[in-house]
Amino acid sequence: MDLEKYGPWALVIGGSEGVGAAFARMLAADGFKLVLVARKQGPLDELAAELRGRGAEVRVLSADLSKPDVLAKVRAVTDDIEVGLLIYNAGANDTRGLFVELPEEVTQSVIAINVLGQANFSRHYGALMAGRGRGGIILGGSLSSYLGSPTLAAYTGSKAFSRIFSEALWGEMAPLGVDVLHLNIGFTATPAMARLGMPVELAEPPETVAREGLENIANGPVWIVSTPGNVERAQMINGIDNRAETVRAHAIVPRDQTAAAANQQQNLAEP
Ligand SMILES: NC(=O)c1ccc[n+]([C@@H]2O[C@H](COP(=O)([O-])OP(=O)(O)OC[C@H]3O[C@@H](n4cnc5c(N)ncnc54)[C@H](OP(=O)(O)O)[C@@H]3O)[C@@H](O)[C@H]2O)c1
Question: How many CB atoms are closer than 10 A to CB 195?
Fold first, then answer.
């Protein structure tokens, strides 16, 4: 990763485990200094110790992205440094249910993290990057951005926001020297997914996802991770015709059927 263009500091939001930790390790190996943000202090401290042991300068912050003061808290640890790379990785969904029945705080949290968070962090750090005429922003996306899935209304809607927002921001920022990428992720073997009981043995390793994000930061606005079946699924669910049938037929399946769906996705991709 080009330290001159995207350094010296990278801010990884959701940078304690999974894809975020993989980003952090790769960037540290390339000489970046890191600010890592997540809620749980323990995993942040462990990763920071590991990276410092390899010579990296690391700051950590425990903060909750669903709270309105989160950008102010992150700014308190970044206002004195030059953040040339923003990676907004956090944003997975751990609650399913009918939108009208889920507690308001649950759906508001999804929207705060994936919509307001991506917008607010992009505005603040993007403006500073634009002023310097260089930098990069990677926003954590999902294949679910292509299809509204019942029981995941707030999540799929918020990922659609991320993808469309990224496209527009990419167009605005490219002439200013700043790369923007919506990293469109499929089923990935993260600790968050493992904690939900998902069959992560069938999923993409986080390292592959992070590597593809870094390697393709200049190939925006959208990069679909090359997991077999991802591009095919995006093409299948993204058409404008007959949305009713598409939503009925291709909604994200309940978690207990995910293993079968992941197997089917891999079979589809085989020649
Ligand atoms: N894994 C998949 O199969 C998959 C599929 C499609 C898209 N994605 C996307 O990939 C990204 C990463 O997903 P993931 O599976 O690793 O799970 P995740 O729950 O987004 O966790 C990733 C990181 O974000 C932090 N985090 C989560 N919620 C936070 C909050 N409210 N405030 C501060 N930090 C928070 C976590 O640490 P703490 O828990 O300590 O806060 C962790 O470091 C997300 O944007 C997700 O939508 C993932």
Answer: 10
